[in-house]
Give the backbone structure.
Amino acid sequence: MNMEVKVSSLVKAYPKGEKVLKGIDLMIKKGDFFALIGPNGAGKTTLVRILTSLIAKDSGEFTIGNKNNQNDFFEIHKYIGVVSQENQLDPTETLENHLKFQGRLFSLSKEASEKRTSELIKIFKLVKEKNKKVNELSGGNKRRLHCALALVHEPKILFLDEPTVGMDPLVRENFWQIITELNQKDGITIFLTTQYLDEVDKYANEMALLINGEIHYSGSVEAFKESLKDSANISVEEQYLDYIKQLNLKEAYIYENSK
Amino acid sequence: MKIASRLLISRAIKKLIKEPAAPLMGFMMSLFFLLVYNAGIGGIGNLEVFGENGYLAFIFPITIISLSMGSASGAGQTLSLDMSSGYFKRLFYSPAPRWILVFAPIIADSLSSLFFTVILIIIGTIFGLPFQFGIISVLGVLLLSLLWSITLCGFSAGIQVRTGNHQSASVVTNAVFPLLFLSTTFLPRELIEAKWLIMVSWVNPVTYILEANRFLLGGTSSQIFFVIALLILLILSIISVMFAISSAKSIKIN
């Protein structure tokens, strides 16, 4: 089977020795829409940062598109796109120049970079804003630009680390429309971490549940929903809460009390 | 990787051209030193210790040193902006090596300092600044200025990256500033009365840079100062760049 992401026995500890990731094993197929869920502090962002080579692992192995992280650092960066939680934008640059520069940074020719920039501006409905400086853009448009920048070099895998935090419902809907199209039409593999479990229900086909640095479930979204209550009608959110409650984790009670 | 490195260097230079406030402030401060001190106490240039070329050749080197200090305090302006906006982290996901993210602003800031040194030299020439060895003196002054700028900008950028605080760029300037007063900045050693100050000035690298410049401009100092200054600056600039690069490699992601 064609595996896009392979992770085995991945371990990461904080400097004081406390383990954040305690031997993670994961397999993600090419073209999957994969979601990683878990409570706050479970290690989701740490895992994404290791897989995107932002921070180093302590032990274990992983490959991204058959590229080994230790040897193919630059190749991996060309293979992946990353949409992180916070906007990482140059406020002094115009939207269009920002995208063009990103393309050039990834070795696209001037013409190719301009062409790709135009495409992305249309896809993300940013035509009217293209000459505006980033600090003049609305929050939603900044988020769109942030996402567009991750796609300039046409990555094969898109890492989305809680990408919809702070998005209004309309922008969110538009965002997912674009992402699902990229996944279904262009075959881009999606690796999503999110706290919004309805997003997992709607869009993901594969998922993993990470709690306290350990994978508690890995497989299809449908199988997860059936795994405890034996019913396909249950939502990911309900199943997740049931599972967390069984583990007697605080988060479930805080969540329920806040309802 | 080469393309990315080249692009990031040219981006850092363009950013400085677009927003030249920090290097301009450094330049204005240097010009202020040159005009005020030359006009205010230039008369003491008639003393024998200043040689035939008077006070201008004596005071001019301090303008060059303060210019680089000004650049270093605004150093990493691009770095600073990138860190505060989060764009710096985005660049981690690009094919550019991490060291170039810090090295590019150092190059831009040092080149900007070199550019303003040229302007200061032109202004100095209009005021009658002597060049003891002609064009060699000019090139020597530029070389010393460039190395001094690299030294300060390198430390400044490294500290910014290590602390994760983009406002720490001024730390280096603040640390170096007292050295100006513990040196032969305003008076030759012969006219300094406090013995402890004379002692301190001997171990102060700024003294050697000043004297090296004075040797090149007015010929009032010894050639050995130029050799020592060059060696000191070469070593310091290498250490500074290594520090900046190692800082970039050890960045901790929050």
About this structure: Residues 169-184 of chain A form the longest helix (16 residues).
